[in-house]
Amino acid sequence: MEMDHPETLGWLKDALAEETVGLRLHHHHLEWSWKRITTDSREAGEGDVFVAIPGERFDGHDYAKKASEAGAVCLVVEHEIHGADAAQIIVRNARRALARIARAWRARFSCNLTAVGGSNGKTTTTQMVAAILRRRWGADEMLATEGNFNNDIGVSHTLMGLRFRHRAAVVEAGMNHRGEMAVLADMIRPTVAVLTNAQREHQAFLETVAETASENGLLIAALPESGHAVFPADDPCSDIWASLALARGVKSFTFSFDPAVPADLMCRLDADGALALEGERESFQIALRIAGLHNARNAAAAAAAALIQDIDPEVIREALESFEALPGRGARLHAAERFGGATLIDDAYNCNPDSAIASLRMLAREKAPRIFIFGDMAELGPSSEKWHAEVGAEAKRLGIDYFWTAGEKARAGALAFGIDGDRCRAFRDRDELIDALRELRADGGTIVVKASHSAGFSKIVDVLSGK
């Protein structure tokens, strides 16, 4: 991200003071200006700062000299790069240094900043909030996470995009290990913290749903006294978030789809897909283009976040009524002609047991034949087999017409459904399932593709859509 007003290396040096172990720059370098922070040497150019981050496949230090030759004025590195003309700030940990730069940059701005965390629906909710902010302020006066770049590197780059013209921003925050959210929360320092839900995700690293809720709840702990915590009152972990808000001394703004659980914003999804929202001061309906209770809950979270920022309900309604699902996250497509005009729902980017069951319940209300193509769910820990089986059992209970799986883990779901070689088939891998798609009878029906991203089921979506 290029700066509106180039900063000096003196500012950068101060931002990294606690992380710095050495300097390879002269006093006059401190007045040099820099335009942009980058971690990709291929993008490095005149006036940039290159942060050399060691990764699993590549080490940025191997490309630091190249960045210097491309015109970078400063290298942030963990060891000296010999032969590089650029100034160098040597740090203990380059990845942590990037977060410190982003933290210092974010501190310059006072606009409303919404952070979205939770187990499922983060990206959709973030983009819904972004759509509302765009409708309210215009594209040039708001900032949002692009895609799902929600780890410390992605969040750093998003925050570095903040400018004084921005009236509001929304940042997605994701984690799968203890301690990661603490880093993100410290960087983002939101004014509004949105928690979508707490579900069975990353249980290989976070042993309980309550622990997942507590980790995500660190966004609430990072709020200022004037901040707001937004979360579902009808989530089993809502007490955790309410306690965090109370301890922080911030206001909670809750939403609920359960008539027996009171909240600031009571929500109802009607049979025709209309989302009804009723609060103390407002009551309005939204005709959503995206199906499923899980997406209605995402919309309610986004609406709640907007309402506490005093955004008019009509603006919220207009933004959410024009919102369409993102690729891999429930996007509705037309299947190729050879699949008989079926509707294809691409939900292949992310999956845990609860989101898979939510997709099944959505599918159960769609046109038959109802076909669920299910792949391995990652990072579930010792309960993996049981939870894959739970998905298959739920599909059978709901009367799903075809339940096809690919992958060793997903096979447990097929066994629970009942493998019969027709309605329920278990394939060794994704490519074997793709070969069998020519036998799929989907005329006029609905196909849902659901798996963790690591399963690579986007290729199945490509085949079904005729790409």
From TrEMBL:
EC numbers on record: 6.3.2.10
Subcellular location: Cytoplasm
GO biological process: cell division; cell wall organization; peptidoglycan biosynthetic process; regulation of cell shape
UniProt-annotated binding residues for ATP: 118-124
Residues covered by the Mur ligase central domain: 116-306
Record field: catalytic activity: D-alanyl-D-alanine + UDP-N-acetyl-alpha-D-muramoyl-L-alanyl-gamma-D-glutamyl-meso-2,6-diaminopimelate + ATP = UDP-N-acetyl-alpha-D-muramoyl-L-alanyl-gamma-D-glutamyl-meso-2,6-diaminopimeloyl-D-alanyl-D-alanine + ADP + phosphate + H(+)
Domain of life according to the entry: Bacteria
Role of this protein: Involved in cell wall formation. Catalyzes the final step in the synthesis of UDP-N-acetylmuramoyl-pentapeptide, the precursor of murein.
Family affiliation: Belongs to the MurCDEF family. MurF subfamily.
Protein's recorded name: UDP-N-acetylmuramoyl-tripeptide--D-alanyl-D-alanine ligase
Origin species: Sutterella seckii
